[in-house]
């Protein structure tokens, strides 16, 4: 078995001819079909994946997965939506082209929440993605299929996208690593747009070093994406020294203090205890940890600010989904009825609800009250985090309120007090900050995680902190071990 190893271990085995590219492809495809049967992680499995020559590039000859909102030439790319269920693009996203140029081999396209709009992995047109640790639980979203596949050992990495926490929450639920670089470090050309000011390309792996290796290949300025920037002076993998003595981290009292959760479940209590232990490990390897405070009213506004801005941008971005330019055309007497039928019948209720919200907040009579106010609150939040980055190298926080939620929502009691704990990762998108989630423990056999977020363009520092902390814990390179077979 090689697909459960790290990228460098697989590359070394290829160089030493301990395994062939064909054998790796066959192993990954076989595992893809197993995981598809048990967890429904893929829209398309590329059974005709072709061998390539192994070169000095560590990604060459190694299989990987592509989230289904990346455009791939001559390969079905649906965004997990019925509106694009037969869409085959004529071009490939820049980020994927760069992986292909390195010799990476795509073996499947992974299921996501429809067009990335969702945090459950349950709204894709091909059905629910189940968590490989416990199939009664979700993977979160929207990069659900990618998280599931990497955690299950289908391959060492997959691409993802992150508009609110769509890489960093699923990896927490699946016990792996998820990295969203600084906004624009990876070109978004060919990524189906959701909310353009928030969308980030990124990667899901099983260790921090692999995340650095893959993003080193994906990143770079692109003439087709005016928000991309020249990061050629940043080499992530070679910056991973593990030396973090003197680094200063902070955590936010209002998010991490158990006293703020009067109805705290046993899972939440254990999760915050795990986080405290991680902070101690940070101190043991030479980092300073301090508690800071941010106005609770401002923190409480994170989720609603995200909803308003993301829905407004989504409404605008997806106005081209008419059923006329591409997608299955609706049968109607005229083009207006054709578009109406296509959008009414093609989109799921969740998507339509978001479009309605987006259209409402952009109406002239509502724009100042909702959309412009949301932009103002976004600025206030980003400014608060920027102040922290003047004094601290990064903000470290727990991800979510515990392990993966049940697919049967009745088994999880939702507590409005934990909303900020569940949604704070969205600030990383508001500010375009580099942000990485790594596992930090288990609760009842299910993984939980923490997140490290730093200032824009300080990706190498953020990854090195995560790399050093990862080395103190036992969760690097872990592959899912199912704790429940009840479905």
What does this structure look like?
The strands form 3 sheets. An 8-stranded mixed β-sheet has the order 6-8-7-12-13-11-9-10, with helices on both faces. The model has no long low-confidence stretch (mean pLDDT 96). Helix content is 37%, strand content 14%. Helix 10 (302-317) packs across helix 12 and helix 10 crosses helix 13 (368-391). It has 487 residues and is of the alpha+beta class.
Give a brief rundown of this model:
The chain has helices spanning 7-15, 21-39, 94-101, 144-152, 168-174, 208-218, 253-256, 266-284, 296-300, 302-317, 335-346, 349-362, 368-391, 419-423, 426-431, 459-470; strands at residues 42-45, 63-67, 105-110, 130-131, 134-138, 157-162, 177-180, 200-205, 248-252, 288-292, 394-398, 435-443, 446-453.
What structural keywords apply?
alpha+beta; 8-stranded mixed beta sheet; 3-stranded mixed beta sheet; 16 helices; 14% strand; globular
């Amino acid at each position: 078995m090689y697909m459960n190893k790290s990228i460098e271990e697989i590359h070394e085995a290829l160089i030493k001819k301990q395994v062939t590219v064909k054998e790796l492809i066959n192993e990954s495809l076989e595992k893809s079909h197993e995981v598809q049967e048990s967890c429904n992680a893929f829209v398309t499995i590329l059974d005709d994946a072709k061998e390539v020559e192994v070169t000095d590039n560590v990604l060459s000859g190694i299989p990987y997965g592509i989230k289904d909102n990346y455009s791939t030439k001559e390969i079905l790319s649906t965004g997990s939506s019925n509106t694009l269920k037969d869409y085959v693009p004529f071009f490939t996203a820049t980020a994927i082209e760069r992986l292909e140029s390195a010799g990476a081999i795509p073996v499947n396209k992974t299921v996501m929440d429809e067009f990335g709009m969702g945090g459950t992995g349950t709204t894709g047109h091909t059905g629910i993605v189940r968590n490989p640790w416990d199939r009664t639980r979700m993977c979160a979203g929207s990069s659900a299929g990618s998280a599931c596949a990497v955690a299950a050992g289908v391959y060492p990495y997959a691409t993802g996208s992150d508009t609110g926490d769509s890489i960093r929450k699923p990896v927490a639920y699946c016990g792996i690593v998820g990295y969203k670089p600084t906004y624009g470090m990876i070109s978004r050309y060919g990524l189906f747009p959701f909310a353009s000011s928030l969308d980030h390309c990124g990667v899901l792996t099983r260790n921090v070093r692999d995340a650095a290796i893959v993003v080193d290949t994906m990143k770079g300025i692109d003439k087709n994406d005016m928000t991309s920037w020249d990061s050629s002076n940043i080499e992530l993998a070679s910056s991973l020294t593990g030396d973090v003595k003197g680094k200063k981290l902070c955590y936010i009292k209002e998010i991490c203090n158990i006293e703020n959760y009067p109805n705290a479940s046993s899972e939440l209590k254990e999760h915050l205890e795990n986080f405290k232990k991680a902070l101690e490990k940070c101190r043991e390897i030479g980092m300073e940890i301090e508690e800071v405070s941010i106005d609770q009213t401002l923190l409480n506004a994170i989720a609603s600010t995200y909803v308003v801005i993301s829905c407004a941008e989504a409404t605008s971005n997806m106005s081209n989904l008419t059923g006329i330019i591409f997608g299955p055309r609706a049968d109607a007497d005229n083009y207006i009825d054709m578009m109406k039928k296509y959008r009414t019948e093609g989109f799921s209720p969740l998507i339509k609800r978001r479009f309605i919200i987006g259209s409402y907040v952009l109406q002239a009579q509502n724009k100042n009250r909702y959309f412009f106010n949301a932009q103002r609150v976004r600025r206030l939040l980003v400014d608060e985090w920027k102040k922290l980055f003047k004094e601290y190298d990064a903000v470290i926080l727990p991800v979510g309120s515990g392990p993966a939620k049940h697919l049967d929502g009745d088994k999880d009691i939702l507590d409005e007090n934990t909303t900020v704990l569940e949604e704070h990762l969205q600030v990383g998108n508001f500010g375009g900050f580099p942000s990485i989630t790594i596992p930090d423990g288990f609760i009842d056999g299910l993984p939980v995680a923490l997140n490290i977020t730093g200032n824009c363009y300080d990706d190498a520092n953020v990854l090195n902190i995560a790399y050093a902390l990862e080395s103190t814990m036992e969760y690097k390179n872990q592959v899912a071990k199912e704790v429940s077979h009840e479905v």
